[in-house]
Write a structure and sequence with these properties.
The chain is an alpha/beta fold. The protein has helices at about 15-30, 45-50, 75-85, 115-120, 135-145, 190-205, 210-215, 220-225; strands at about 5-10, 35-40, 60-65, 70, 90-95, 100-115, 150, 155-160, 170-175, 180. The protein has one domain: Spore Coat Polysaccharide Biosynthesis Protein SpsA, Chain A.
Amino acid sequence: MSDLPTTYTFYQSNIDPQLVEAQAAVFHHLGIPLVQELDDKIDHSGWLTRTFRNDDLGPLAVVADIDAFPLSLAGYQHLIAAAEAGSVAGLAQVANHKNPDHIYAAPMFLAARRDVYKRAGAPEMRRTERSDVAQILTLCAEEAGIPIALIYPKFCIAPRWSLAQYGVYGIGTFYGENAFFHLFEARRQQSRDLFLAVAQGVINGHHDFDRYMAILDLVPPKRKKFLGLF
């Protein structure tokens, strides 16, 4: 699996070390190269721009949020194949506070060839009046006629936001067919506990969705007792 591209993630010192360790454990289990960059001197959007513009990292840029990971090697390979074929590839999201109708490839897991990024104008990934962090890449790519390959949410443990006309996503969102997981709201202890549980589920090869829901207090007490949860 040494021919797989490296995924780069960014975090700052206020991130729970357990999340960092759990993400690394999942990538290691799946055999996917990962570099986790701790940097308190730059913000997320600045780091994204720096990473996409760094030709020394190879022809393909692959980035992820610190609270996201692949659920399977096949899911990761599918996204990489789309990016290598010339698409801007990523997990589908909308900025409901800016443009709730525009679905874009979001940076919780995002990949594109660097020459494709340059053809889109090598935009800075910061927020703009019309876009959230990294959304500008999808907008510029669309304007340049570059295809966008999106992996849509399959379901989530706790719905929070609408995804235009395609459904909802939220805390603990599972994307595609056992492809990717993104936590959201990692500042909450319950959410962090969920992240650790799902990471363990990937490593164990078995997802305990009753436990995932129980972590977020979504299982009725009688059923929780029946299942022996907590």
